[in-house]
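Entry type: protein chain
Record version: 2
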Amino acid sequence: MEGKRILVTGGNSGIGLVTATELAKMGAEVVLACRDTEKTADALKLINEVAITPALNLSVDLASLQSVRDLAAKFLGRYERLDVLINNAGVFPRKQRFTEDGFEMQMGVNHLSHFLLTNLLMDCIKASAPSRIISVSSMMHKKGELKFETMKGFEKYNSSVAYNQSKLANVMFALELAKQLEGTRVTSNVLHPGGVATDITRDLPWLIRKIIGLMFVPPEKGAQTTIMLASKETLADTNGKYYDQCELADYSRLADDEVLRQKLWQVSAELVSQ
């Protein structure tokens, strides 16, 4: 990975932090996309203890599309190349919340912010080919349905329903992107990291978080699929695939619906341009 530049959203904790640390250890130049917090500063210290090229953070609030635009502008103003984009960040609020732009928080952060960021960086990614785009989804996408009318909020909110929908959107976006990127030497793949105990569960009751911590695997194991997709040379041409814990896997049949995928793309493009 020496000489490669990688941008990781949500790289200050959990899977993202392990991913960033391991890729930096391999020689990659890691750029985090996180809010400027004490947690991010601590994450950079950990990464830079092993990094060959010092890592840094470009501040962003993924609950604000303007902040995402500012992030892209900062990145493009500083760099001419992006070898790997890892759309890793995610939220799972227990109660219904909304982004700065009025979107349901999970759809806004988990899908729309990454949709916008990827498209804003696309020319740079293409110019850096061979390059890779990796989206972190979840096996829970298989329980998801796309209901476009809920993108700005549910009449009756269920955190799991909202999460599953946002994760289905991740898979559909990654697969539609892969189709559009054919012949460009840029790949788009998506993954389920396994059941991982991370900060995404921070809004859940203490007892549930404790149970999850006992049942789920640590981030060190959960990050392995992302690390593999970012670094493995034999996967350089792999495009439009879904991986579950480092193995090729089946995904929701809804994600094979090209008409629905294209509608999601169109609706997403319209929403982020408002």
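Comment: The longest helix spans residues 159-180.
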